[in-house]
Automatic annotation (TrEMBL), chains A, B:
SUPFAM superfamilies given in the database record: PRTase-like, Winged helix' DNA-binding domain
Top-level taxonomy: Bacteria, Bacillati, Bacillota, Clostridia, Eubacteriales
Residues spanning the membrane: none
Keywords: DNA-binding, Transcription, Transcription regulation
Source species, domain of life: Bacteria
Name of the coding gene: purR
Protein name as it appears in the record: Pur operon repressor
Species of provenance: Clostridium hominis
Length: 271, 271
């Protein structure tokens, strides 16, 4: 390839780094791809790093040593986080959100990539220094959000099933009491899906009583692994004495059963 | 904000465009954020566009008119696509992939963001000119891939459930014969989850007999909507007379029941 200008190289470096968050890219890779000396690439990286930090679009970290290189850590400025959560509150306050049984319809939000990719960046920022091995979720509604958080942290996603599937080999199954239905439910996880002694964070759409988080804690014990945190999009703060400890939420929700009114606001983590 | 250099502006433009694929961003947004004239931003965009095309990292399209602006269309060069699919074939050929019942264990691949984000870009490239309204999938294993394809196309994801959930309001349910288990199964979709007269593409991990695709076709009819294509990561070409028409696969797989050998190769779409 012919020599590229600095303008061109910084575009390529930005594209490559931001699409593989938390994965170390060696300077050699850039050097070969862009046909430039490593010293030149280092100068390019300074430009990319400074601009991303100036606009609060995440950070570039340098990892030294033989396996060294640089990696991109997604993040957003606190103003953008608050703005995003306020927009989410507007969406949640729309008419028709309450479905029979006094549940809040979240499906359209949870399956909208433009919303969930941002929510994933914000949630991941609270867990980035915890050396997490896996993001876990229980099927189904939290999967896209859990996937985005795992992507931001550069780790794998583990999805716990409600029944065991013939395509996944041997599984471990536990019973737990669901906060939504109040019924005993099952959780299954394939033996192959997780290394033992792993640190996990549970990501979900909605937190009620924390029964699911408690179930996941129990299931992870069977894999000699540990639940070290929980992150949700919406927390129903009307339900007290939650069984989930150490959790992060973006939105706090309160439902007035008498007036049928739904109150939502960005959580204390955001403000 | 103080004036930024061109080096800085192209970094910001690349970051913003590539993280919201297929969404139109007005030049005004860049102009305000980067404190530069629209004519200057237009020159910046030429640089970003040329570099992305030169390195086959996707395209930038200009949309004219009042709601105009630019948008990023993710793509990969054919060499990178083939290289990715060959790596995937190596992964699929690893020992221990076959689980009891002669199923191929795909879970770790389907839940790995580094793999699935690239597979999503490749699959989306075959559907980009079809004006798709929704990407649909059936829970669970195909969800991350379907999500990535939806994100690349700038549209929403719709996840069909195997049972109906109390948190989703009224649902439509149909029965279909699963190719995996040979049993009659259910599919449910909330009435609120899709506008009528929509064009949909079904994304999944694995194609066997196409029974699920046929079920989705039937379910979509209940929403006055249409299945216009199917995309999977792996196609079991050993199973003939598939009920899925018009499908795209990245990998072709053949399982020799006598020798227990698994043969995999990039599909004809990739080569």
């Amino acid at each position: 390839m012919e020599k590229l200008s600095r303008n061109n190289r910084v575009v390529a470096i930005t594209k490559i780094l931001t699409e593989t968050p938390n994965k170390v890219v060696g300077l050699n890779k850039f050097s070969e791809l862009l046909n430039a000396a490593k010293s030149t690439i280092s100068e390019d990286i300074v430009i990319v790093r400074e601009l991303l930090e100036k606009l609060e679009m995440g950070r570039i970290e340098t990892i030294s040593g033989a396996a060294g290189g640089i990696k991109f850590i997604p993040d957003m400025g606190s103003e953008s986080k608050l703005e995003f959560c306020n927009e989410l509150c507007d969406l949640l306050s729309e008419e028709g959100r309450i479905v029979p049984g006094n549940f809040v319809y979240l499906t359209d939000i949870m399956y909208n990539p433009q919303i969930i990719s941002k929510a994933g960046v914000i949630l991941s920022s609270y867990f980035k220094n915890m050396n997490i091995d896996y993001i876990v979720t229980v099927e189904t509604k939290g999967i896209p959000l859990a996937y985005e958080v795992a992507k931001c942290l550069g780790i794998e996603l583990v999805i716990i099933r409600r029944d065991n599937k013939i395509t996944e080999g041997p599984t471990v199954t536990i019973n737990y009491v669901s906060g939504t239905s109040g019924r005993i439910q099952q959780m299954s996880l394939a033996k192959k899906s997780m290394k033992s002694s792993s640190k996990c964070v549970f990501i979900d759409d909605f937190l009620r009583g924390g029964g699911t988080a408690q179930g996941i804690k129990d299931l992870l014990k069977e894999f000699d692994s540990e639940l070290v945190g929980t992150g949700v999009l919406v927390d129903n703060i009307g339900i007290k004495n939650k069984r989930a400890s150490e959790y992060i939420t973006l939105i706090e929700l309160e439902f007035d059963e008498n007036t049928g009114e739904l109150k939502v606001r960005p959580s204390e983590f955001i403000k």
